[in-house]
Design brief:
With 198 residues, this protein is of the alpha/beta class. The protein contains 6 helices and 7 strands. It has a 7-stranded mixed beta sheet. Helix 1 packs parallel to helix 4. The radius of gyration is 16 Å and the shape is globular. This is Thiopurine S-methyltransferase (TPMT).
Length: 198
């Protein structure tokens, strides 16, 4: 997978555009700025937006090409944020650190996903939020992006189980038209979650 993402992010074109994910944008626009963690941040579109809204941003991904493009995008706006090369399994974060974690199209096999989501919850402060948008299992067959393996796609049952210790404020399955660069474009089925740590 590392080689796949290095190749995708090595193109001069931003694979998923330079604008933030719309759901992520809508959600953080309603919250007072704090410290946010953005895992699997790729080319930095959401990190740049959050930093421009005065959030203290920590981002990570395992792609060096993605990191370099994220930092280039930040430079065009005259902003900086922390971006490390890391994985979900290896990222070292103290408990109760973040007021927000944004999981935007962070797909992984189901066995790994359950462990990762529980670990990320420990990084949240009490009262902190998770914002998630990902492809639903019904995305299979749509040409608008996402994994081609159903095990790496989500549904309501998955997220209710993974985040059962949080207060679920929003959980919806949505048919939408994506316009996020060349690799997220067209009709799609996504799932969206907003949850708050007790």
């Amino acid at each position: 997978m590392n080689e796949f993402w290095e190749t995708r992010y090595s193109s001069p074109t931003y694979a998923y555009g330079t604008q933030p994910n719309e759901f992520f944008k809508q959600c953080i626009d309603t919250l007072p700025p704090g410290r946010v963690l953005l895992p699997a941040e790729g080319e930095g579109r959401n990190a740049v937006y959050a930093a421009r809204q005065n959030w203290a941003v920590d981002a990570f991904d395992f792609s060096e090409a993605g990191r370099q493009k994220a930092l280039q995008l930040a430079e065009t706006f005259g902003i900086k944020f922390a971006y490390t090369i890391d994985t979900f399994a290896e990222i070292d974060v103290p408990e109760n650190t973040y007021g927000l974690i944004g999981l935007i199209y962070a797909h992984m096999p189901s066995v790994e996903r359950k462990v990762v989501h529980k670990r990320l919850i420990s990084f949240l402060k009490p009262g902190g939020f998770v914002i998630l948008e990902a492809f639903h299992k019904e995305q299979l067959g749509n040409p608008s992006g996402g994994p081609k393996d159903s095990d790496m796609l989500y549904n309501r049952t998955d997220l209710l189980e993974d985040f059962n210790e949080l207060n679920i404020l929003q959980l919806e399955e949505v048919y939408t038209d994506l316009n996020e660069g060349p690799f997220h474009h067209g009709s799609a089925c996504v799932i969206r979650l907003v949850a708050k740590k007790k």
